[in-house]
């Protein structure tokens, strides 16, 4: 009987230790997840800083303060100046014009990659419109024909999110972009021009 009791007590001790170990594992996983989240945040911040450092090397005498230089153009990302301010498409374009610029015209794969890379840092909200950016393309003049603010007709359908540039929602006349980790090349979508989003301005260096 003593042997049986000792075995029972030993089993209880092992069970208690096992439960304690499970709690520690759960706590450690929570800590690791928090560290991983911080690491991802730091990586995004590092990318922004690296881009800004690269820009600073080239912007002296070329771009205004608060703008970044890339591939022979200067860019203004509104969310870097104010994370709260958002504008309609027309309002954002008016802001760009006041700055001597216009909404961005994305006409090269490297520029598409650059915008996707920078806009990744904006991913803080749960709803996609919270981290979307107005770009300079609309189909206001003719439904389904997307034209950039420099009067060039959009031809690269591969950059649009699957199912976009359709005629299902005729109130969605203005183009916007957002970062997608799953499909970083499919970033463009049509939105209601009266929605309030961040935006990107572009101008030639001075």
What can you tell me about this protein's structure?
It holds the Pfam family Lectin_C. InterPro entries: C-type_lectin-like, C-type_lectin-like/link_sf, C-type_lectin/snaclec_domain, CTDL_fold. This is C-type lectin domain family 4 member M-like. Strand 1 and strand 2 form a beta hairpin. The protein is α+β, with helices and mostly antiparallel strands and 206 residues long. The chain has helices at residues 2-59, 78-81, 89-98, 109-119; strands spanning 68-70, 73-77, 102-103, 132-138, 147-148, 174-178, 188-191, 198-203. It is elongated, with a radius of gyration of 25 Å.
Largest sheet: 8 strands, mixed
Report the top-level CATH class of one domain.
Alpha Beta
CATH architecture of one domain: Roll
Strand element count: 8
Average pLDDT confidence is: 79
Strand fraction equals 15-25%
| Helical proportion, percent range | 40-55%
List unreliable stretches of 5+ residues: none
Structural class: alpha+beta
CA-CA gap between termini? 93 Å
Radius of gyration: 25 Å
Overall form = elongated
The number of helical elements comes to 4
CATH H level of one domain: which superfamily? Mannose-Binding Protein A, subunit A
Task: Kindly report the CATH topology of one domain.
Answer: Mannose-Binding Protein A, Chain A
> What oligomeric state best describes the polypeptide chains here?
single chain
Order of helices and strands: HEEHHEHEEEEE
Keywords: Coiled coil
Organism: Hippocampus comes (Tiger tail seahorse)
Protein name: C-type lectin domain family 4 member M-like
């Amino acid at each position: 009987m003593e042997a049986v009791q000792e075995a029972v007590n030993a089993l209880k001790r092992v069970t208690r230790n096992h439960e304690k170990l499970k709690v520690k594992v759960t706590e450690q996983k929570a800590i690791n997840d928090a560290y991983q989240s911080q690491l991802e945040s730091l990586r995004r911040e590092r990318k922004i800083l690296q881009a800004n450092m690269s820009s600073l090397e080239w912007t002296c005498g070329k771009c205004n303060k608060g703008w970044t230089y890339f591939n022979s153009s200067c860019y203004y990302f509104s969310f870097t100046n104010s994370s709260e301010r958002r504008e309609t498409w027309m309002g954002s374009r008016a802001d760009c014009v006041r700055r001597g610029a216009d909404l961005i015209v994305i006409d090269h794969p490297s520029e598409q990659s650059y915008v996707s890379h920078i806009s990744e840092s904006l991913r803080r909200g749960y709803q996609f419109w919270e981290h979307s950016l107005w770009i300079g393309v609309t189909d206001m003049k003719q439904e389904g024909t997307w034209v950039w603010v420099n009067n060039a007709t959009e031809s690269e359908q591969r950059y649009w999110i699957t199912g976009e540039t359709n005629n299902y929602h005729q109130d969605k006349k203005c183009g916007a972009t957002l970062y997608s980790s799953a499909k970083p090349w499919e970033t463009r979508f049509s939105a209601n021009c009266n929605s309030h989003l961040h935006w990107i301005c572009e101008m030639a260096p001075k």
